[in-house]
Amino acid sequence: MAKRKKTTPAGDGFPGFPIDTLDFLHELALNNNRDWFTANKPRYEEFVVAPALDFIAAVGERMPRLSDHITCVPKRVGGSLFRIYRDVRFAHDKRPYKTNIGIHFRHEQARNAHAPGYYFHIGLDECFLGGGMWRPDGPALERIRRRIVDKPNEWQKLLRSRKFSSGFELGGESLKRPPRGFPADHKYVDYLKRKDFIAINRFDQSLIVSPDIVDYAMELYANAQLLMKFLCDSQELKY
To answer: What is the pTM of this model?
Structure first.
């Protein structure tokens, strides 16, 4: 079994995820059960947890250049790395483990996955990164929509930003009708219908094994700052 190479590229020193990371996720998808995972947990620690925490630490070194209020916490539990264990209590799919790596760099004043933040995802079907708010609660969503109505020029500036529009698409779900209390004829009514405000950039899986992955992530996170600032302002949070 190949070991993780400790190279020292320029900058933050993160060499990229090992190819063994993807191999492990592929095998987990074929053997998604507790017995297999227990027997292969040392591989999980070496090829998923360790490089993910290194990546988080590398991003954390640079994040203050974008924001002093976005946290990058390289901890196994309670940090930026999502748990691999699925919540199957109310799910038809009872497979116990996720077959992806999820990382969320959250705002310091919010502690859950719905808070403003940047995201990084390694999956077998796709890899992507992004920024924004996924499935905000009712009051938070109301504040975002209200800011679009009250500050249409700010929203327009975001939509017209070449760096943003060329690198991202807005993902998530939308209502079929305009939300109650908002004008159905508003020029941005399609955005007012949104239930998620997340910008997504999909990238080739091969990039994760490159030491350039941190540079790539930070460049894209910088290009998403207008959205992040807009959302933080809507929640009266400092960006």
So the answer is: 0.90
